[in-house]
Specification:
mainly alpha; two-stranded antiparallel sheet
């Protein structure tokens, strides 16, 4: 069926160019947050589809070209086609591997998304990378035939270089167009994420903690201002001591160190102060995540974050210290009560949807795959469908009251807070600790409300 591999390669180059021109406008209308199974399989099969079309077109062209040629001329053309034949089979291997990869992704717990808005351009560039690399490998194999006559080791060197080019091109082409994550720590992707990152996706400041360039600039400017003097401890947590409070020290820290961690967390990480805004809490937490200043807090975080049982036991064991440091006055005066209420109500909003798990997945994917979009407008637009009037009013009221303090353009403070509060539950869902965190928040709320009534 294949008479000229050269024609197939040239037809494929033309196809890529034409499709790039025709389908380029797709990137203006398609939202590349994440890719559906159908689109993923289509992208995975794209190389094989283009090869199939090229083979059919080649057949028609060869029939026309060879209609007046002799059998000897046709055979001569085919015998001189070895370079193009190798290039063809390299592209064919690329096609089978990309399709196989897309199938693996579908059956695994991975999420795939386009890396940027110009995803169509990137797909075409990736395709071009594969075609060019196939031609280079074809050339190397032709060179190999010549150098083998001089020294066989040079032939093996050509094969080794070809393998490096093949694998490197496949990696560059795939990572140029697609980004993927795994939420399963036992998967291959999850293993390498944990190996190289060491921390939760929350520690990816751009993707999950809503760290846009604006947010990072905000954190940097605030930290520069604070660096000029001693860090504040508004409520004098470091002057507090509760040696008589009984705790179940299940993390084996001892009373003194446990109290030290509470002091550090409340004064430095949360930066608790009078009349704190939602964005004040958000900025304080994200600054700690972004800079990772406090190693002791990071150690505790790693021990507990993805272990719901450990979270439950730690809260039950150390909650007497929490309630001792965080008096009723501080809890209400700092507006922690408003934040706890907003988190509980936002959880109820999400679980009031028809399919809460699907909603949580969509929220999380918005934060992951929408990181290169305009922030917070894009994420807010996607997440606002889950926001109830009750929570929206509370967030808008907070943003309005603290407009001057937070120093945001009007309207942006409420968007930042909305995205942060609702994406909080997307992260907890992926960490598989959403239920225990929700229960603990309700217990905290109940504790302080009962004390307030007394």
């Amino acid at each position: 069926m294949i008479k000229s591999y050269k024609i197939i390669i040239f037809v494929q180059i033309i196809l890529v160019s034409v499709c790039g021109f025709v389908f380029r406008r797709l990137q203006d209308i398609y939202e590349p947050d994440s890719i559906s199974v159908t689109i993923l399989l289509l992208v995975g099969a794209l190389v094989l589809i283009s090869l199939t079309i090229s083979v059919v077109i080649q057949k028609l062209i060869v029939v026309v070209i060879n209609s007046d040629s002799t059998k000897i001329e046709a055979g001569k053309n085919i015998s001189n086609d070895e370079f193009w034949r190798i290039s063809f089979f390299v592209i064919l291997m690329y096609g089978f591997l990309t399709l196989l990869f897309s199938i693996i992704v579908v059956v695994s717990n991975w999420d795939i998304g386009f890396t940027a808005y110009d995803f169509m351009d990137r797909i075409l560039i990736s395709f071009a990378i594969l075609i060019v690399s196939s031609l280079v490998i074809g050339l190397l194999f032709r060179i190999r035939e010549s150098v083998c006559e001089i020294a066989k080791i040079l032939g093996f060197l050509m094969i080794f270089i070809s393998i490096i080019i093949f694998l490197g091109s496949l990696f560059v082409a795939s990572s140029n167009a697609l980004m993927f994550r795994s939420y399963n720590e036992d998967s291959i992707v999850g293993f390498f994420e944990n190996l190289f990152k060491g921390d939760d996706l929350l520690h990816n400041s751009k993707a999950v903690t809503v760290e846009s360039s604006e947010a990072q600039n905000e954190i940097v400017s605030e930290s520069e201002g604070e660096g000029e003097g001693e860090e504040s401890d508004y409520y004098d947590f470091y002057d507090m001591s509760f040696p008589d409070v009984d705790i179940n020290d299940n993390l084996n820290y001892g009373s003194s160190k446990a109290q030290g961690l509470f002091k550090l967390f409340l004064s430095r990480c949360l930066k608790l102060e009078d009349n704190q805004s939602f964005n004040g809490f958000r900025t304080a937490i994200q600054q700690n995540v972004f800079y990772g200043e406090y190693e002791d807090i990071k150690v505790v975080d790693k021990k507990l974050r993805r272990n719901p049982t450990a979270i439950r036991e730690a809260f039950d064991g150390y909650s007497p210290l929490l309630y001792a440091f965080l008096s009723d006055k501080i809890y209400f005066e700092s507006n922690l009560n408003l934040l706890v209420d907003a988190l509980i109500n936002s959880h109820n909003d999400i679980y009031g949807t028809e399919n809460p798990e699907e909603s949580l997945n969509k929220i999380y994917k918005t934060m992951i795959f929408g990181e290169k979009k305009e922030f917070p407008d894009y994420c807010y637009e996607k997440i606002s469908q889950y926001v109830s009037e009750n929570v929206s009013n509370a967030i808008n009221k907070d943003a309005k009251i603290h407009l001057d303090k937070d120093n945001y353009i009007e309207g942006y403070g409420s968007k930042y807070s909305t995205v942060w509060i609702y994406s909080f539950w997307g992260r907890r869902y992926k960490e598989k600790n959403i239920d225990v965190v929700f229960e603990i928040l309700k217990e905290v709320k109940k504790h302080y409300e009962e004390n307030d009534r007394d």
